[in-house]
């Protein structure tokens, strides 16, 4: 079931106590947020959607869920004919280097998670925050006739349900190959580990959903999403 509102503080908060496989969509959010409580501009014309999904036990499932949700969004965009889509670890969807969508996973109740999806469609976030100019992409930039927001919500929810069920039935290795294809070419990155910076080559994620960073000596390190406050892509490798 999809509940729809004109304005809410946060669709994730509205969805907090709903049953699995229900969802909330709002025309605008007044307190949209991203990771680490960063502000997410949620202006009129965008898709602000939160879906409640069952959450399996264990750290591996928790780590894999944001990546599986990113895969679901990319699959939905492919259905719309948008092929130049890639992920930026751990929760951004980019087209031509600009952010089209983002994810925020919350857990309010044991055994279930809320997958928050923000996707720019016809909205103009740079008018709300000038710092976003030249950093965002919209479906309206890519499609002459973007789907209506309720239809777009249902498309993404269908893909999300498929990957969540696959994750529950088969585990994260069944999704890892497809997810790792969505990062694009290898990139040198800088990680902010709560104030400590480190650089290396981002080579994808392991079967447990952790970021793999290779330093100049070839040594691999593994990081969970909660350890990394920010990932900055520095340049692509040849």
Search tags:
alpha+beta; BirA Bifunctional Protein, domain 2; SH3 type barrels; seven-stranded mixed beta sheet; five-stranded antiparallel beta sheet; globular
Output the strand order for the largest sheet: 1-2-3-7-6-5-4
Residue windows where pLDDT falls under 50 for at least 5 positions: none
Overall, the morphology is globular
Q: Which structural class is indicated by helix and strand composition?
A: alpha+beta
Q: Please summarize the sheet with the most strands.
A: 7 strands, mixed
Number of H/I helices: 6
CATH architecture of the largest domain: 2-Layer Sandwich
- Average pLDDT for all residues: 90
SSE ordering: EHEEHEEEEHHHHEEEEE
Overall helicity: 25-40%
The CATH topology of the largest domain: BirA Bifunctional Protein, domain 2
Give the C-alpha Rg.
17 Å
The CATH class of the largest domain, by name, is: Alpha Beta
| CATH homologous superfamily label of the largest domain | Bira Bifunctional Protein, Domain 2
Report the strand count. 12
Instruction: Tell me the span between the first and last alpha carbons.
Output: 47 Å
